[in-house]
Amino acid sequence: MKIIASYNIKGGVGKTATAVNLAYLSAREGNRTLIWDLDPQGAATYYFRVKPKIRGGTRALVSGHRDLDDLVKGTDFESLDLLPADFSYRNMDLVLEENKRPTKQLQKLLAPMGIAYDYVFLDCPPSISLVSENVFRASHVLLVPMIPTTLSARTLDQLQEFLEGHDGLGKVNLMPFFSMVDRRKHLHVHLMETLPESFPTFLKASIPYASDVERMGLNRMPLPAYTPPSNPVTRAYEALWTEIKEGLAKTGRW
Amino acid sequence: MNEFDQAYLVPDGTDLQGIKDAFVGHYEIAEDEPRDLLRRFHDTFDWSLYHAGTVLEERSDGSRRELIWRSLRGDSPDLTWNIDRDPGFAADLPPGPEASRLASLVGIRRLLPLLEVHTRITTWRLLNEDDKTVVRLELEQNRYEDKGRERRGPISTRMRLHSVKGYEIDLQETKRLLQEDLGLSTNRTELLLEALAAAGRKPADYSSQLDFRLDPERRADATAKEILLHLLNTIEDNIPGTRANLDSEFLHDLRVAIRRTRSALTQIKDVFAPDLVERNKEAFGWLGEITGPVRDLDVYLLDFNDYQASLPEALRPHLEPLRDFIHAHYGAEQKALVEHLDSKRFRDLLREWRAFLEAPVPERSVVPNAMRPVKAVADERIWTMYKRVRKEGRAITPASPPEDMHELRKSCKKLRYLIEFFDSLYPKQEVRQLVKLMKVLLDNLGNFQDLAVQADHLRDMAQRMRDETHASTDTLLTMGVLVGHLLEHQHRAREEFAQIFMTFDSEEHQALFTSLFTPPKRKRKGA
């Protein structure tokens, strides 16, 4: 089982679209795939038409009183399941704090899912918190969607600093990529040429800004499920997924 | 993560709209594009998979083909293989423990298509208030097609429910609607069995085994006809497979039925007119002859790997030219066989024979045994043959010539066939014990003779290979080693004979033969 987190400290950069569309592509290839919507706002859950609620809330889940598997919902797509968001996730930091090893709880919860799934995608809430630290520890890949702005470089620096400053976090594969790219903007084009130079693991694939992505909220399903195969955004997500798998194969950590 | 949950039978003539209507107020229904599935069911000619309580189904939907092996009772998980060609022999399947299990059931027989079922699957997705799919309902409309018999027609529509993980409550609700509101019942009838029934076929309608239920009081001539008619059916059943050489068992079963026919003709004595017996004995002798050469080659090919494995490793490759030689001659022998099977002589023979067997027996007959109760004739014949086997066997010493062993084998075979024809007239358990006993003795005698014949035949072939293909010295020498092995085994069989015959002829077994088969008047004499 490979765990792939879609994460950024900032909000509104396309994290959920990334997790939802990549999870869909993974399942479409026949991989048994789970997406866990960790964001209390529940956008990913909404896209899959599932109610943002889990029985017993965060506490029952983190304490292990409920098997993760019992909370999973099948989506409308074969091989793709969802662990829904719950509004109580906003207090997840507090609940994690109550445990002995508060930074390793998600890892522990996810471990038994390896029997049922080939890929797990985590859709993370923005901010750096105990939840995100848990995510960093549990994940094999940290996907960081970034809008090409001057602040992006700073965000990435901060993240890298954080990872290096904490024991056991330096090993995660940091894979930043550009999201919501508008090639009409000179600044976007300029940053896309320069920024990856200082980050060798920066992915080559990028996701264009497109109203198609925004329509995911209307259609309530992953983009490739309702656009033709020739759709440029769908193709961009396919290229991204291919590059991630190649990156995973190279590291050979599993 | 869908899993098979439950299947329902939709009675013929059910209005599908009526089923949809039952969901109004509970779920919206989204209907997916229908897709077509072709199912082909396979089994060996002797139904080995069916006898093991299993079904082998090939499924193709245009994009992929898979082979599904499942239990008839649905009590164990299905096994699935992806395939890219017709399943033929078990050895052609992707290797693995499952394929080995299948191989142990089908042996050397070829998997043949039984019939096809064309299925159109329409998926209804039941949607909740968020338009989320919560249950999948697959409607399977089926038509069978029996290509060989040119029969086709509809069979029951089935409905399968597939749960969506996390929405089990909706599955329960759907089941309730189907069962209580619509009155549908769950279905456990295997599709294959329904299709076979619709096609007017019975599963397991072929077996090479004899399984008569004879009436001891019935006239011997009528009973003999019943036995011979069954054997004729077996002969005819095996002709198409023999002609097409689907697997070597068709010819084998054909030959066994021919031998049994000759044996029944000559050993159920004095029930038919002597000239008829004489004529047909000769005719079936001819059938034995024309079917022999291909069978000989089959035996070589079947045993070839064992032959090769019995040799020192360094010699094994040198045996390959023999395999090539056999293959090279196989085509011609098979062609000759097919010509015989297509010949007027062959067709006339079977037609006349059937006409005779199907005709009622004459009201009165002057042939001595014809009108006697079959049990009395069976007792006499078996008893006489048993005494002959005993006499011939007891006379054999280590110095006896092979011909004596050969004679004994012929008598033994006759005895065994007689017991098998008439076994339903006697207590089951005891007869089964005797047949087993005969089998041990016959195996020993068979080994002794067949190995000698094979060694001779191999020598012949070596000569022909030298003349026809300039076989290398290495190959000829290797065949020589093989001949040596065969003769060694034969020698061993000869050494073991005394012990095996002694067991056969033990007091216990003598008593058993006497109690079962002594004809009544002899018993009176003894008393």
Please tell me about this protein's structure.
Chain A is built from 13 helices and eight strands. With 254 residues, chain A is of the alpha/beta class. Chain A has a single domain, classed as Rossmann fold (3-Layer(aba) Sandwich). In chain A, strands 3-4-2-5-1-6-7-8 form an eight-stranded mixed beta sheet, with helices on both faces. In chain A, helix 1 crosses helix 13. Chain A is globular and about 50 Å long. The model of chain A has no long low-confidence stretch (mean pLDDT 91). Chain B has 527 residues and is of the alpha+beta class. Chain B folds into three domains: 195 residues, Hypothetical Protein Pfu-838710-001 (Beta Barrel); 155 residues, CHAD domain, CATH 1.40.20; 144 residues, Alpha solenoid (CHAD domain). Helix content of chain B is 56%, strand content 16%. Chain B contains 16 helices and ten strands. In chain B, strands 1, 2, 3, 4, 5, 6, 7, 8, 9 and 10 form a ten-stranded antiparallel beta sheet that branches. The C terminus of chain B is likely disordered. The interface between A and B is medium-sized, with 15 and 12 residues.
